[in-house]
Amino acid sequence: MSTKPFGSLEPPTAREEKEINSKDASEGGTEAGARRRQHRRSNSFIMVKHVRETPDEVVDQSVAPNVNAEWVNMKGMYQVTDMAGAWVIHVVLITLAKLIINEVPGISDAVKWSIVNLGYMLVSYCIFHYVKGAPQDLNSGAYDELTLWEQIDQGYQYTPAKKYLTSLPIAMFLLSTHYSHYNPWLFSLNLAGLLLVLFPKLPILHRLRFLIFPPAPASRTISGTATPVHT
């Protein structure tokens, strides 16, 4: 117990500091304890956030099909043909990019393959893992916090579409590594591009957000006793 007079401005001793900390620990639900915990968490420069669905968002998602993600499977009248077309377009775009790069003089074939590979990885990351929401808001914003990868097949893992979209970057990495003759610098760049698009696809990272240097949580002030008003 402290023996200092009331209103003393002297700093607390080590024993008094220990008593204060033990009291805060026993009163974990108090405003002061919450502020201290928030202050400790704000010192971290990386924060992991899990995006969860509210009951209203679940209802909104069932109102209309998500056209932003349905094109990957193209579940229409010609499901098999449309699905093949949606998958083949990746190969077509990669082939066109390679043909265009081939017309640029003064670049070796190893560098050309690496440029095509890194370009595909970057575009794939931006489309599937960076941009959130849907351009056509038919579900009352139920997908605003989700990336396209998280919207595909309603978030289910190991579906045919997700297996294909996972194997394609790996195939591009193997091709670029082979045609670059395992150059260590190009291999490192291509490997970095592969990891950039593979890590967000892991099921363990589903709906997780890594915030670097997150803003400090707003501190809440404790309001005192209301001043009585005479009427």
Automatic annotation (TrEMBL):
Keywords: Membrane, Transmembrane, Transmembrane helix. It is a multi-pass membrane protein. Residues 13-26 have a biased composition (Basic and acidic residues). GO terms for cellular component: endoplasmic reticulum membrane. The keyword Transcription regulation does not apply. It comes from the Eukaryota. The chain crosses the membrane at residues 84-101, 113-131, 182-199. The keyword Signal does not apply. It is found in: Membrane. Residues 1-39 are annotated as: Disordered. This is Uncharacterized protein. It comes from Malassezia arunalokei.
